[in-house]
């Protein structure tokens, strides 16, 4: 492709022109243009240009000095734009479209609404009313909060006579603190809010102290990237009154009796046939493409489009609902509340305890009913099975310098997958596949090519379930870009390799565990998935875990009829492999046996494994290395697990109440059949267990604490017979998320 020349501009003018200064409409679409092709010196001669079409090119940003003083209409659809702040150089812009730029988000929509005061249409939608709110009401609220933050925490820190160094230090602390603590609006707009807060704070300092404003956006972003976030907040941060926090009501112990003690199966969890309701076509994911648009499984599939903001403009011209928690219910308009209720996001409030005291050191934040079938408010039967926290990203200019650990969790159950902000309880996105029942989700981070062969890290979510199909979702782009038909029977669980980001393990009811290379999608989302291994099992694999010290060599699985290990090293030629070791555990009579259901399995650290079997009232802690080293030579050897300790747990014989661990804090978590979460702090034991001569503890270790299920009300009725199917925490044990058998996602925050 040739560079832009005067001749090209004259030829592409509509109508064709003989002089650049006479051109009013210019079409530069489908020319494979890159940012470097937009020569500011040449464009500065287009003094009367009013309409510019740059769609279907390869632009990743705009040069800062195009000098188009009369530009009114701009089309940037189907590019690779990463930032919109350079558009402020077109102050007369009235119509702007930039759909199908996968790296732009709702935060960018709000930025252009603020920066372009004359903007009326954004992506074909009239945004006049919303833009006025962003420019006036939003700015007024944030300015008030920024000013209050300065007055309370920083004004007295500045002496009457101050030096330049003192001012510089105060400015740095204030900007960091105010971005951390001033909160307004939904968390999905947190990037925009921090952007505006920083802008307002710098303007405030300039006005109050005579400090110079930093107007170089790129410099600001680089400063944010380079600045390391402290793990401890300043004292004044914790006391900031600008944070609006509604304290949840006190909780009451659940005195209901436990439900049925019969064993249950995932594939039989939902027995009633219910009609699938479609309140809004755009509010749910269509699983299959239109009949006249058949596609291969590795081609982009626009069937899993997530829910987004209830107001404003959305990508691809569609509008989706969002959920919010009772924490922010007082801030919602009647229209927003109605939108939430229409789309099945229900917030349940704990009933106040008569004594008015908390009996655990965790604060109950949110109890969400967001996986309802057909968005029914009466659905308390959908089983929720899997949840996992989103990993943090280091992605250049979009790196978030404020958040020190992820608070976004992906949950699945029934026909939907949800992304929830644990702090606010907002359901950020929701994916639906009407014919699916999701059993498992897993995250990976892929270095995706964006332009000029540059790579940028993006989080990809894999979701799988009853249909044996893995959905691959690029969350930031709100796009399910493909699927892998992994098994002919349901998939029980999935997990990614911690060392090979494209390697995905899928464990299925066909009694096989498959290893896939999902590939890395190109800029058009074309990708190629390939099967690398098939691990044969004698029974259905329920939980899988890669051995931390050798994740490329051994995989451990808890199955319906035992606990097994496979050698997964890819250097071996054999593609189909039997298990290498099966582990024996004591049964109820104390006899060693290999025939038992292992429905909970996780590593507490590099060596200690926590597993839960069918023996009532017990979770085993055992040494991987000491157990595996006894196998000697040969394949399919039976060895006895070297048990280090037993954890005291519920005596229920119900299955599929799985456990999890928090290695960084040396905790084990497991829910029970009464809605309680058992928490074990094992930091006082792990040092002794690391010794090769460590002996088994004589007594069972009791839980450090038990989180009792609060008494919840829905339409005046009390919910009881709650099973905790799964419970996890984020890596820092700030948030605890529990998934239940009654379609409720419960979120606690550590006090």
From TrEMBL:
Q: Which SUPFAM superfamilies did the record assign? A: L domain-like, WD40 repeat-like
Q: Extract the GO molecular function terms from the UniProt entry.
A: chromatin binding
What's a GO biological-process term for it?
chromatin organization
Q: Which PROSITE patterns match?
A: LRR, WD_REPEATS_1, WD_REPEATS_2, WD_REPEATS_REGION
Q: Where in the cell is it found?
A: Chromosome, Centromere, Kinetochore; Chromosome, Telomere; Cytoplasm, Cytoskeleton, Microtubule organizing center, Centrosome; Nucleus
Please list the residue ranges annotated as the Leucine-rich repeat and WD repeat-containing protein 1 LRR domain: 7-200
> What's this protein's name?
Leucine-rich repeat and WD repeat-containing protein 1
């Amino acid at each position: 492709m040739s560079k832009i020349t005067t001749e090209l501009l004259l030829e592409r003018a509509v109508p064709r022109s003989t002089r650049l200064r006479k051109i009013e409409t210019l079409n530069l679409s489908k020319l494979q243009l890159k940012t470097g092709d937009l020569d500011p010196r040449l464009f500065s001669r287009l003094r009367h240009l009013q309409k510019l079409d740059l769609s279907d090119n390869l632009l990743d940003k705009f040069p800062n000095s195009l000098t188009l003083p009369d530009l009114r209409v701009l089309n940037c659809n189907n590019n690779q734009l990463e930032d919109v702040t350079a558009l402020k150089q077109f102050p007369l812009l009235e119509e702007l479209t930039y759909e199908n730029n996968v790296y732009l988000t709702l935060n960018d929509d709000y930025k252009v609404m603020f920066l372009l005061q004359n903007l009326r249409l954004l992506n074909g939608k009239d945004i006049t009313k919303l833009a006025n709110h962003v420019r006036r009401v939003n700015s007024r609220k944030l300015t008030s909060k920024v000013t209050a933050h300065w007055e309370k925490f920083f004004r007295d820190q500045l002496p009457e006579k101050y030096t330049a160094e003192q001012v510089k230090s105060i400015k740095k602390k204030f900007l960091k603190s105010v971005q951390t603590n001033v909160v307004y609006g939904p968390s999905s707009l947190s990037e925009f809010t921090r952007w505006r807060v920083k802008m307002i704070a710098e303007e405030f300092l300039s006005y109050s102290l005579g400090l110079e404003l930093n107007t170089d956006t790129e410099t600001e972003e680089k400063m944010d990237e380079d600045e390391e976030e402290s793990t401890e907040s300043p004292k004044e941060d914790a006391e900031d009154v600008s944070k609006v926090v509604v304290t949840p009501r006190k909780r009451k112990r659940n005195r209901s009796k436990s439900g049925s003690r019969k064993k249950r199966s995932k594939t039989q969890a939902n027995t009633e046939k219910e009609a699938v309701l479609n309140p809004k076509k755009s509010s749910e994911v269509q699983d299959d493409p239109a009949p006249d648009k058949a596609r291969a499984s590795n081609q982009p599939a626009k069937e899993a489009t997530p829910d987004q903001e209830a107001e404003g403009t959305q990508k691809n011209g569609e509008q989706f609902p969002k959920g919010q928690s009772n924490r922010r219910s007082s801030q919602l308009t009647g229209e927003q509340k109605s939108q939430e209720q229409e789309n099945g996001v229900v917030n349940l409030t704990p009933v106040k305890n008569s004594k008015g005291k908390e009996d655990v050191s965790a604060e109950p934040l949110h109890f969400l009913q967001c996986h309802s079938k057909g968005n029914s408010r009466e659905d308390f039967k959908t089983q929720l099975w899997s949840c996992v926290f989103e990993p943090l990203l280091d992605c250049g200019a979009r790196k978030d310098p404020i958040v020190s650990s992820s608070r976004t969790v992906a949950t699945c159950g029934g026909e939907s997958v949800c992304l929830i902000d644990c702090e606010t309880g907002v359901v950020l996105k929701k994916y639906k596949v009407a014919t699916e029942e999701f059993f498992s989700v897993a995250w990976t981070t892929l270095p995706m090519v964006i332009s000029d062969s540059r790579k940028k890290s993006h989080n990809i979510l894999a979701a799988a379930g009853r249909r044996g199909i893995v959905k691959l979702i690029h969350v930031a782009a709100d796009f399910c870009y493909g699927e892998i038909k992994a098994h002919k029977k349901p998939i029980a669980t999935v997990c990614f390799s911690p060392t090979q980001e494209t390697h995905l393990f899928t464990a299925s009811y066909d009694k096989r565990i498959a290893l896939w290379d999902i590939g890395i999608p190109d800029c058009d989302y074309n990708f190629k998935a390939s099967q690398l291994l098939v691990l044969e099992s004698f029974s259905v694999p329920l939980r899988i875990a890669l051995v931390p010290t050798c994740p490329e060599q051994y995989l451990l699985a808890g199955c319906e009829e035992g606990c097994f290990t496979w050698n997964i090293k890819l250097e071996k030629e054999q593609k189909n492999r039997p298990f290498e070791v099966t582990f024996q555990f004591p049964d109820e009579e104390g006899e060693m046996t290999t025939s038992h259901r292992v429905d909970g399995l996780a590593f507490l650290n590099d060596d200690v494994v926590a597993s839960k079997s069918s023996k009532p009232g017990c979770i085993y802690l055992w040494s991987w290395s000491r157990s595996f080293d006894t196998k000697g030579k040969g394949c399919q050897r039976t060895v006895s697990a070297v048990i280090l300790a037993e954890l005291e747990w519920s005596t229920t014989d119900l299955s599929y109440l799985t456990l999890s661990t928090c290695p960084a804090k040396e905790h084990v978590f497991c829910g029970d059949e009464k809605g309680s979460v058992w928490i074990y702090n094992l930091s006082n034991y792990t040092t002794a267990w690391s010794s090769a001569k460590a002996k088994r503890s004589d007594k069972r270790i009791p839980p450090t604490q038990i989180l009792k299920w609060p008494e919840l009300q829905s339409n005046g009725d009390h919910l009881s017979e709650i099973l905790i199917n799964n419970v996890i925490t984020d890596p820092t044990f700030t948030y605890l998320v529990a998934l239940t058998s009654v379609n409720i996602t419960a979120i606690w925050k550590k006090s």
